Amino acid sequence: MDPNSSAAAGSRASNTATADKGDTQTGNDVARYDVVVVGAGMVGAALALGLRRSGYSVAMIEKAPPEPLNDTDTPDLRVSAISVGSERYLRSLGVWDEIVGFGVTPYCRLSVWDDTPHPLSSFMQRPPARTTFDADDVKVPHLGHIIENRFIQMALWQGAEKAGVVILAPAEVAALDNPKAGKEPNSAILPATVTLKDGSSIASQLIVGADGANSHIRQLAGIGTTRNQYGQQALVACVQYAGPVEDITWQAFHPTGPRAFLPLHSVNSEYSWASLVWYDRPERLEQLKALSAEAFLETVQRNFPKQLPPLSHLGGRASFPIARQHAHHYFSGRVVLAGDSAHTVNPLAGQGVNLGFQDAEALQSILHEARRSQQDPGAASLLTSYEAERRPTTTRMMQVLDLFYYLFSNAHPPLHLLRNLGLGMAQAVPTARNQVCRYAMGLDSELPRSLQLLLELRRNGLPPLPSASTLPRFPRPRLLPLPGRRRGPLS
């Protein structure tokens, strides 16, 4: 598809095309759809497309359409590590080839190691404990892809428009009327209604809130959240480096948080783009953002692991807070939540959007079967099944990510020993390592036994985590090159 097709312009025109898709859209009449999706980011657009392909009439509401793509653009700061499981879902929606056409970077290896110095670092020049996950070991062509979010969103918007989803953008929800079973007369058959800021109204059997962590729909539906703010923030930078695109992504863990390298596409035969992530205290990241581009690159080069190739150009940088947040309920009345509206997780393993796609796929599957049996898509029994499927899975992933945050974001000596033993054992025991790999890729849903044991240990016996401000600081150890079969600046 043409990246500059009418997805954006056509979305505005769709406001006048509603009569063909819903029941009415004239004067003060209320338009009607089977499903209304509020929030047309990656998860919302995927779900809208999937439900339309299942035969539902669908409207998608978004504050602003995506910007047209330009081949000369600097890569966007917002990128995602798309798992193999998410790739399969996007293929099922018929948009994967378009995403690949915009630009993707497969990675075949993921390496993680502990870069926390210890008191004897100056005397013991030994390599850090390291675990490397390899696609060959789990018999797949790659572990995932690093993709700019705008590529995924554009492909999904184009696919949704082509499938007949009515796209209302720019548009915002101002009010929600959400009948709850047993609370109002005939509530079992009453639709929910959203009123837009332009005064128009849309009625639907199901309203999907996919409008992000600060979901307005979730607030209007009266669904509360539990939120835990992490002490760290994440700085993301888009940089050019010398050398070809590598097939490895890596994270080095420091007491203040990990530092990560995610390969993007090539610039030319000599240079490539990459996304770098630096987790640290907010005040430290503010200092980094205040540096000139040249000073920033020098600081990154000095503080990142030696595996980072020479940096030549800064495309952009920004920081954002990170938090764990979980909705108290995934639905209320005829409103159901998906993606970041329902949950946000620590981004250190790149699982956020993959969990969102799992939400979309699960809800789409339940509603597909409901349509075949002519059930009300907003029936409480269906939405209960959705929450029963997704909440435990999301909770487990939250616990695992918090475990890694707890274990690695500190210099506490007992934990330093424990994580180094764990990384060393993971590298030495291929079966356990590969089980964790398949779980992270979305290929296996059952939590690996090794992670179950760590979670149990965390609940019952690990020492309390000291404050980051009180952690000792030691000189950085010398790192050895990454192991691997491929040659290149990152090998």
Distance between the termini: 36 Å
Structural class: alpha+beta
Summed over residues and divided by their number, the pLDDT gives a mean of: 82
Query: What is the percentage of strand-forming residues?
Result: 25-35%
**Which regions contain 5 or more consecutive residues with pLDDT less than 50?**
5-27, 120-124, 464-491
Instruction: Please tally the helical runs, counting DSSP H or I stretches of 4 or more residues.
Output: 14
**Cα-atom Rg, whole angstroms?**
24 Å
The strand count comes to 19
Estimate the helix proportion, in percent.
Answer: 25-40%
Any idea what the shape is?
Answer: globular
Main pleated-sheet profile: 8 strands, mixed
Question: Describe it for me?
Answer:
The chain is α+β, with helices and mostly antiparallel strands and 491 residues long. It is 34% helix and 26% strand. The chain has helices spanning 7-13, 18-21, 42-53, 84-92, 96-102, 149-163, 216-220, 282-290, 293-303, 352-372, 380-408, 413-428, 430-440, 449-460, and strands spanning 31-38, 58-61, 79-83, 105-107, 109-114, 130-134, 144-148, 166-168, 173-177, 192-196, 201-209, 225-242, 248-254, 257-266, 271-280, 311-327, 331-332, 335-337, 343-344. It is globular. Residues 5-27, 120-124 and 464-491 have low confidence and may be disordered.
Write the layout of secondary structure elements.
Blueprint: H1 7-13, H2 18-21, E1 31-38, H3 42-53, E2 58-61, E3 79-83, H4 84-92, H5 96-102, E4 105-107, E5 109-114, E6 130-134, E7 144-148, H6 149-163, E8 166-168, E9 173-177, E10 192-196, E11 201-209, H7 216-220, E12 225-242, E13 248-254, E14 257-266, E15 271-280, H8 282-290, H9 293-303, E16 311-327, E17 331-332, E18 335-337, E19 343-344, H10 352-372, H11 380-408, H12 413-428, H13 430-440, H14 449-460
